[in-house]
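To the structural biology subgroup,

Please find below the input and predicted structure for FAD-dependent urate hydroxylase, which we are adding to the shared reference set this quarter. The sequence is reproduced verbatim from the submission form. If anyone notices a discrepancy with their own records, reply to this email rather than editing the shared folder directly, so we keep one authoritative version.
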Amino acid sequence: MKIIIIGAGVGGASAAIALQRLGHEVVVYDRMRENRPVGAALSLWSNGVKVLNWLGLADEVAALGGRMERMGYRDGLTGEQLCDFSLEPVTARTGQRPYPVARAELQALLMERAGLDRIRLGRRAVAVADDGDRVTVTFEDGSSDTGDLLIGADGARSIVRDHVLRANGLEPVERRYSGYTNYNGIVPADPAIGPLDAWTTSVADGKRCAVMPIGGDRFYFFVDVPQPSGLPSPADPKAPLEDAFGDWNPGVRALLDAIDPAVSLNRVEIWDLDPFHTWTAGRVAILGDAAHNTTPDIGQGACSALEDVFALAIALSTNTNGVEDALRRYVRSRSERAGELVLRARARAHETHAFEPGVTEAWYASLRGTDGAAIIRGIVGNIEGSPIDLGVGAL
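Predicted structure (tokenized):
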């Protein structure tokens, strides 16, 4: 079967690997002209890592990942250590160590393993047509391609999602602004910023500044500033960080001093989608952000896309009532869990960003002196129920 995938990001490239392993002919199209993903890095919790292991990438992903042994919170202003605890229980309870990784490096690995000769860059999809037997995608340059199945992994502004919804008599869905902007990037690891083996987060006034270790002796940093959407980008990219965090604790000060905007600094307004369950129409289906765009507040965005890939591959390889039937079974196995994670991330964003100041102050108080048990339960709770753990859920 010939399968067309729109989008060469984490979800699309992983799907290409999985579907080729099942013996299908796969071709991938993406509007980007080179591998320049949005966002510097991402969290791969055990459910996401297990999918990559299943794809035969265990050693490569472990090499890219940082050794994140602990987690700690600090008062953003004073630097007081609010709590510090081991993340070993996450590994023990889930059966796999988590890995923060550089997004571009993971995507390059996935694209290489999918086969660079099967990936067509600089091709923006503008229309999809499904005649019941074959599906055709048309590109901005007037070219087209036809296959037996089309997968939309084309992100939060997905044109394939719009086709699927309209084909079901529905209007396209609108994204929802979360209320904050995220700044992220990569800097050399430095103990002046935080412990080299820990996920360290400073919090105050509804803002957070966090660093995670990734491979190559580097820190991935991500900082959140509650603010309206649509603000213009300043001439000095670091100016918003100085305004928001310039008087924070010495670790944050060391991070700000280490950031070189010319090397690594991204500014991303954070949006999500209300959960919906119409992911397929005929021979067309969506996955990843196209299906369940989420805020990064529980670190499950990429992992959820990888779960989609696993469930899709299982559905196509084990159901024999036709493509349309297999796609419907894929959606039934995934949309409820994916939607629940979107809502958990949204609730977490509300709790941490002082949209209700009393709620956020109560959260800060809960961090002081905690042994981490409740936080570990939350992390593990987001992982439990993953389809990659055979025998769980609809699969």
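Summary notes: Residues 323-352 form the longest helix (30 residues). The two ends are 23 Å apart (CA to CA).

Regards,
Lab coordination
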